[in-house]
Amino acid sequence: MSLQLSGIRREDKNIWERRAPLTPKYVSKIIGKTNTKVYVQPSNNRIFPDHAYEKAGAIISEDLSNADIILAIKETPISKLIPNKTYCMFSHTHKAQEYNKNLLSSFLEKNIRVLDYELIRNPKSLSRLVFFGKFAGYAGMIDGIHGLGQKMLAMGYNTPLINVAMSHTYPTLNSAKLHLREVGKNIKANGFPKEFGPVVFTITGSGNVSQGVQEIFECLPHEYIDSSELHNLVQNFNGEFSKLNKIYGVKVTAKDYIENKDNGVFDYSEYKQYPSKYMSSFHKKIAPYTTMLANGLYWDTKFPKILTKQHLKLLQADPNNKFRMLSISDISCDISGSIESTYKSSSISTPFFYYDAENDIYHENIIDRGVQMMTIDNLPTELPLESSENFSESLYPIALKMIKNDFNDPVVQKSIITENGKLKDEHKHLYSFLNQNNTYSDKISVKSNEKKKVFLAGSGLVTKPLVNFLLNQKNIQVSIASNNISEANALASSFEEVNVLDFDICNRDSVDKMVMDHDIVVSMLPASLHPKLALSAIKNKKNMVTASYISPDMQKLDQSAKDAGITILSELGLDPGIDHCSAMKIIDDIKSRGGKVTSFISWCGGLPAPENSKNPLGYKFSWSPQGVLIAGLNSAKFKLGGKIIEIEGSKLLENKFETVPLYNGFNFEGLANRDSLSYADAYGLDANNIHNMLRGTLRYKGYSELMSCFVKLGFLDNTPYGKNLNSIPFNNRTEFCKYVLNINSGDFETAKKRISEILNIGTNSDTVLNVVRALQSFGMIENCESTNCKESNTHTSTNLGVFCNILQQNLNYRLFEKDMVALYHEFIAEFSPGVYEIHTSSLITYGTNLSNGIINDTAMSKTVGIPAAIGAKILLSDQVKIKGVIRPTHKEIYEPVLKTLTTLGAEDLIRFEESSKKVNLEQLKSSSLAYNLKY
Fold first, then answer.
1. Model confidence, pTM
2. N or C: which end of the chain has fewer CB within 10 A?
3. Which residues form the Alanine dehydrogenase/pyridine nucleotide transhydrogenase NAD(H)-binding domain (predicted)?
């Protein structure tokens, strides 16, 4: 048999994923043993640097198409799957995981053979051979201890555990263990506050996860006891220091807390055969004496849950339980599984959330009541070095068999899910899963072998993910229409079978013919051009989608669209777009429970990732520069503290919100975004009686003041120069700066003096110096030391246009840089006098690093392009009954949009985090964003 070439892909599911399936050591062994090539995608995140793989003999290559076998850790994004290859990964598909349904379909459609590490087992014992479980136990226990220290501190008690960090902050597992032993010395010397004593850690499970948990636990001063001793230990505690200077450990199995519903006896054989006859008494026998639960249990839906929400409610209501059951480290992370309060997986960035069982409310902030939850689902990546080394050692013999083309080996054969475009026999039951209907029908009705045709107008910065999403659906063909053919061809080159059309919006006959030949129109043109294209859509009775605000001209077409029987779905991007969807989901829920929304605050911003924001404005362009700058000149209207506030466009930048305290790690300021009150009606809210109604744009601090100065200086003047470009009195950046400031010399001191005069503030004031230094860094002042001083053709028709060009050249995303989108809603709902709920919905998502000069998807392009593409899919499925010019504020739109976003699988692009809590008026005023905004 011929040898197979192998490749190792770059992990890109999230920023924390630093593991590798094969280390350089084992790559070297493979090359030495087989004399084959190994291709490795370059990565700056991976724990092993590229040069280590090169030294091992691997070929560093962005392109893995030469490899027959592609090894990964986490799921490969659908858009990056190469047809007709063998992939090895944790695919999370063989248990019919809903969120990876599209991924499983793609394996079949692209004729991909998939080996899942979870299925690589010993043929006799069926125990797993390739796993990270022990490292999940290590990291989960370390993180759990870290969180418990925080929880105790929030309750007003300093303990030695506050010095334990998250596991990813330690360079090695050994260094983490050494530090825990140091913390242990502190515990032994000073103990825990008597209010918590004795501290008890309960450990479930008996496999690799549990073994890892125990190994970390044993780094601290400890004593193992039997579960039967718990009651006496806690009940007979009288403050003895000998019980405070260590941690008690309890290893429990099913026999300790599972009992027959009828007779209270545990019979293991009967339990395995008839689990429905049994129930959990964990909340009575174990939980009342537990400080932290480390759950490493393998659980199946047929077995009873260890702890239900009702169990936790009973525990929380017990007045004697204030200092017990503080934290659950659910390392198994089965959503709504053995621990019912695990309603989501948390992230390494935000590892903890809190469950108030008494009120059945989840929230993000530490409070005295309720249990802390840690539910990270990729814990081993916090210990990337050792976990990769251990995993690689286990995978090596399996990889060797595959490279030798021995796919008939029993171990290899049993780990395969799909092959030759089909599910393997043991996985055929998944066909019914793939064909079952969703809440809404996402199937597009087409005749046999016929494809639905999407007419995409525009080829700009946000269109690539849009095209990618549409092409990943069945029976969709995309035509890209653009007046910039080179740009459109560059976009189309990333895909197969994409048409490029030369497009002139002013040529009505040509536009009409193009629209007529397609099934739906998606416009990513500048907002001012949407109405022209909409006229053609109405004439040809084709549905249409845009991501832009509904302008007055678009609104005028509402009745014509209704008369034509079509839907023009607008404002379906980021902001506006998924902000509407997330808001309406919560508003409708509040109303359904009899509540009234009294406050709505929404913030959104597209920004550089913090590490890439080092420039005068703290900003880089991921969408239209002119659109960004003009947005700062729009007038605004909103309601805050019961008062309506209106701001002229020319004054908007001066009237910023000094601080928008959304996340401790970000230094945000904010600008009001257009007419917020106009959305009260769209959201079904009472504009007259609502206390706060504000939609705003986020920027890093310093942006507004600097941009306001540019406005006053004339750099954003949009008055046309005239038709004759040759008459424009400047040829480069410095001359442009001299022209705008009306100075004869473009040197630093002259510019500083003139700017001081225009702004009417001191020459050496911080504001003036910041402006001059900014212009200097943009290459607009002579003798600057900036590397961005290349002279360029700056000719365009207005100051604003020239300045846009200059900023775009200076503030574009460069090699290895990425952008970020932040979105945050806060709702206050009143259910009865003095009874309120605060609801939040938030999203932070990052773009993909630029690597090897290849422009990957930005967070902005994903959050604008994908929702618009989902909108097109929904309209093509003929499920929308509403006609006319609409927003995604209707349930039949926002529900499938949000549902689809949660099933994007491995790409993990757009995920909202929601929380809610009940408060009284005093708590409301102290804890809500609405009452703490500084304007």
1. 0.59
2. N
3. 185-375
